């Protein structure tokens, strides 16, 4: 029984990780310096609803087994079996909450991306150019925050507007400080595939 429960919650955690892996992977590029991490797992995005459903089903079964076992022991005349922390409801609650945080990760992942803003003085004094790029490799709308946040780290980039629906980004930059090639390289560095559409 102990091994069955342990295998079940491990399966639940793995399913929760798989459900949000397309949004967790880009963070590897930011914090771990793993180039191309965003594109390794974007094929999993269509399976996200099924992974979420599987996670919920697994934890529903585990909680049912846990509560049913406790009720069965209370009904027996024998002294209840003492459980270790790893078999307790407290530990199961922690694992359940962790899985929930993994499932909802795409909704708060933007908190982990830095979005520096250029000063108003720098914007007003600069003569800007624009570059429009088609971007492949975005698996969900949250990828736009990853791209915009990374591009705004480039010295000379004033604004970045990425659209998931159009699969493109429009970047306004100061040509005295950066150029379209640097912007293109940055997008490749974080794991996406840019193609130049327009530069002026």
From TrEMBL:
Transmembrane segments: 12-41, 47-64, 91-109
Keyword terms of this UniProt record: Cell inner membrane, Cell membrane, Membrane, Mercuric resistance, Mercury, Metal-binding, Transmembrane, Transmembrane helix, Transport
HMA domain location: 129-195
Gene Ontology molecular function: mercury ion transmembrane transporter activity; metal ion binding
Cell membrane listed as a keyword: yes
SUPFAM superfamilies: HMA, heavy metal-associated domain (SSF55008)
Gene Ontology cellular component list: plasma membrane
Main localization of the protein described in the UniProt heading: membrane
Family the UniProt entry places it in: Belongs to the MerT family.
Biological role: Involved in mercury resistance. Probably transfers a mercuric ion from the periplasmic Hg(2+)-binding protein MerP to the cytoplasmic mercuric reductase MerA.
Name the UniProt record assigns to this protein: Mercuric transport protein MerT
């Amino acid at each position: 029984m102990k091994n069955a429960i342990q295998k079940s919650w491990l399966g639940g955690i793995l399913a929760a990780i798989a459900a949000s892996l397309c949004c967790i992977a880009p963070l590897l590029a930011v914090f771990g310096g793993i180039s191309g991490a965003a594109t390794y797992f974007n094929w999993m995005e269509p399976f996200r609803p099924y992974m979420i459903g599987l996670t919920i089903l697994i934890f529903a079964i585990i909680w049912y087994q846990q509560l049913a076992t406790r009720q069965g022991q209370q009904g027996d005349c024998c002294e209840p079996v003492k459980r270790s922390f790893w078999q307790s409801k407290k530990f199961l609650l922690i694992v359940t909450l962790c899985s929930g945080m993994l499932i909802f990760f795409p909704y708060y992942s933007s908190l982990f991306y830095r979005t520096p803003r250029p000063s108003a003085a720098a914007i007003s004094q600069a003569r800007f150019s624009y570059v429009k790029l088609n971007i492949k490799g975005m698996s969900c709308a949250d990828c736009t925050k990853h791209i915009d946040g990374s591009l705004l780290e480039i010295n000379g980039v004033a604004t970045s507007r990425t659209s998931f629906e159009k699969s493109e980004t429009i970047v306004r930059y100061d040509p005295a400080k950066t150029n379209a090639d640097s912007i293109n390289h940055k997008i490749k560095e974080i794991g996406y595939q840019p193609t130049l559409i327009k530069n002026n």
